[in-house]
Amino acid sequence: MSKLFDTISVGRYTLQNRLAMAPMTRSRAQPDGTPGELTAEYYSQRAGVGLIVTEGTQPSEDGQGYLFTPGIHTDAHVAGWKKVTDAVHAKGARIFFQLMHAGRMSHPDNTPHHRQGVAPSAIAPGAGMFTMTGMQDIPVPRALSTDEVRQTVADFRLAARRAIDAGADGVELHGANAYLIQQFFAPSANTRTDAYGGSIANRARFAIEAVRAVAEEIGADRTAIRLSPGITLWGIDEGTDGPDLYRYLVAELDKLDLAYLHVMHQGDEALLADIRKLWRGTLVLNRPGRSREQVGSDVASGLAEVESYGQMALANPDFVERLKAGAPMNEADRASYFGGGAQGYTDYPALAASVVQAA
């Protein structure tokens, strides 16, 4: 495990260790999408890791899916996030904003403009969405025109620039978990007949164009993407050629010299091995449900350069110190994951100073 605590170069930065905080939606932003008062404290508490990837942050009004999620497309958003980045940098960590366009995983009641969600095709996900009036079925989205797809690429570019203005060290595009970018990958969500649908190359086109636009705007060494090959959330079915789509996509992304590739691993070991071969840069690997005993194994084996953690980083603001000390971990409180205030957000206890010193 000791290799986890070594520094590593990622993009244009040197991380203080090889641990990352995975992106986790917390739904604690103000109604206009500006980070709330506790957000700077929340992230700075967890800045013992080398890299923080923020919760999904919408690049436009159309990109919002859930209640009280943050944005990075207005001046107020930039000002709010600047407090967060300053607090994280004061602790020595790096912070990448995750740019998340929810696509069809949205409800009009949750967005500033109250419009129908947008997606590759007019196909509903067959899922519910929590709104201020309770759970509602997600309605059929509106299919983006070809010009609107290109405008959405431009939205990602502008959001990336605003993230840098807010002090972010870089951005990670959310290409996972059944949101817009992954919706383009899946034939169950994408039945387009233009340049963004049909073949593997066409279904991967939107992701590649969005990543390339962001890299052109802020630098490839400050640009990353997260993928979740094989995930089947909310009506996503990538089809029998899904693994080949990811082989093609990763090979194309590898040409861009990005800061890192963040993979949420779903169990296809052969595909993961192929991704590792195709991706010559930094691989950040997230294995949901990874046990305490498995921490560090992927870095030790050389499969990944960085390991990312969600629940353990959420529930343990001193995650790195606990690992070094061999100390027990707090358990995450699922009831407080989304919405609310300090409970389950900034009130998780840290180790007593005496325990850390004894280690």
TrEMBL record:
Keywords from the UniProt entry: Oxidoreductase
Q: SUPFAM superfamilies recorded for this chain?
A: FMN-linked oxidoreductases (SSF51395)
Looking up InterPro entries in the UniProt record yields: Aldolase_TIM (IPR013785), OxRdtase_FMN_N (IPR001155), Oye-like (IPR045247)
Keyword Oxidoreductase recorded: yes
What is a single molecular function from GO for this protein?
oxidoreductase activity, acting on the CH-CH group of donors, NAD or NADP as acceptor
Coiled coil (residue ranges) = none
Q: Which is an annotated Pfam family here?
A: Oxidored_FMN
- A single GO cellular-component term on record: cytosol
Instruction: Family membership, please give it.
Output: Belongs to the NADH:flavin oxidoreductase/NADH oxidase family.
Specify the protein name.
Alkene reductase
Organism, scientific name: Pseudoduganella rivuli
